[in-house]
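Inverse folding, one chain.
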């Protein structure tokens, strides 16, 4: 502002006009991103039947027809194929996996594997979260006008009470530009989120850990329950 104030008045007026022009462009961008969001809502609804079919295959309640197309051809000369065959770390990892036989239903550990291979999610998943995530059977979205909710559906397990087999986390969006900094607008922004209450089974809360410590000059140990990092810190 100080620099602009040093300019001749006609130039200042042109800059004010350009600022107004840019604000009009921001309003158009707001409308664009709002319509993109509405398109996402509409097309997600059209995909729900496919998500139902995916869940049924993953859970083993439906056996799909035999697929004749070879989707992943293996080239013995491919560098990735060779690395997979010779990599000791990968070989040890495969040995840790539960055996999958022709009688295994569905696709075991599907969602856990997805989370482990998506960088943004893998950072959130701790080792102690994995046994529960193995019970994750479906992930869905539910859109509202200014928020969306991620829904995690679990099969019965030893961690969650039966009343908490459906966990949700809602994200609230701001679709308009910040009045103080309108030119920084790049699309909808998450302004806050709300997680549901999780009803854990006794002694199975993955977000807590029991820590023992010995007090100075005392022989006995003190036990404390402390929070710990977890994917389930909603």
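Residues assigned per position:
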């Amino acid at each position: 502002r100080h620099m602009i104030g040093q300019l001749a008045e006609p130039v200042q007026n042109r800059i004010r006009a350009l600022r107004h022009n840019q604000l009009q462009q921001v309003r158009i961008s707001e409308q664009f991103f709002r319509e993109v969001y509405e398109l996402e809502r509409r097309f997600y609804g059209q995909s729900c039947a496919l998500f139902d079919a995916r869940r049924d295959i993953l859970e083993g309640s439906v056996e799909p027809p035999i697929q004749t197309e070879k989707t992943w051809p293996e080239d013995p000369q491919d560098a990735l194929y060779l690395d997979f065959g010779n990599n000791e770390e990968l070989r040890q990892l495969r040995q840790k996996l539960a055996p999958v036989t022709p009688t295994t239903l569905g696709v075991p550990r599907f969602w856990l594997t997805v989370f482990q291979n998506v960088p943004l999610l893998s950072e959130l998943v701790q080792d102690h979260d994995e046994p529960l995530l193995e019970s994750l059977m479906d992930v869905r979205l539910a859109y509202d006008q200014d928020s969306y909710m991620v829904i995690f559906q679990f099969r019965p397990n030893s961690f969650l009470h039966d009343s908490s087999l459906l966990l949700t986390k809602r994200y609230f969006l701001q679709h308009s530009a910040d009045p103080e900094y309108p030119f920084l607008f790049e699309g909808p922004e998450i302004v806050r989120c709300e997680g549901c209450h999780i009803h854990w089974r006794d002694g199975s809360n993955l977000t807590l850990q029991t820590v023992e410590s010995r007090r100075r000059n005392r022989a006995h140990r003190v036990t404390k329950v402390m929070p710990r990092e977890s994917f389930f810190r909603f």
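The chain has seven helices and six strands. The chain has a mean pLDDT of 90.
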